[in-house]
Amino acid sequence: TEEKIFQRQTHKKALSSCVVDEEQDVERHFSLGELKELFTLNENTTSDTHDRLKCRRCVNGHQVRCPPEGSDCTSDLSQWNHCAGKRGLRDMVLQSAWDAAVSFVFHHYSHEQQRGVT
Predict the structure, then answer these.
(1) What is the largest CA-CA distance in the chain?
(2) What is the DSSP secondary-structure string of 100-117?
(3) Who contacts 19 (Cβ-Cβ below 8 Å, separation ≥6)?
């Protein structure tokens, strides 16, 4: 699924930074089991990625606190807005795609949207 592809890309980026940028040992950051899980589909959740982040800003799967001040689209994914329903989404494209193929969204607002400029 798309989510597993996303998770693999995320892990690939993290592995790259461990090995290339910081020259650290990959095994210290990812167990063999964690790497194997990248190829296992979990159909018992709306977002395996969100579950793995162990989000502290959600209650019963619903975001109740905004991302930290100063976070943006380059921030860690755990600092993005996210939702398991289209209610509250400002993006019309995401809203229209929701019923067809979307079950969970991580999103961030542009600087203009954060300031209220449209």
Answers:
(1) 46
(2) HH-S-EEE---HHHHHT-
(3) 26
Q: Let me know: does 83 contact 63? Beta carbons within 8 Å.
A: yes
Q: What is the pLDDT of residues 16-60, one digit of tens each?
A: 665 555 555 544 456 778 777 777 888 898 888 888 888 889 888
- As a whole number of angstroms, the distance between CA 1 and CA 67 comes to 27
This model's pTM is above 0.85? no
Please measure the distance between the N-terminal and C-terminal CA atoms of the chain and give it in whole angstroms: 34
pLDDT tens for 51-89 read 888 888 988 878 899 998 888 888 888 888 888 888 878
Residues 33 and 88: their CA atoms lie apart, in Å, by 36
What's the token pair of residue 17? 């930074």
Gap between the Cα atoms of 55 and 83, Å rounded: 12
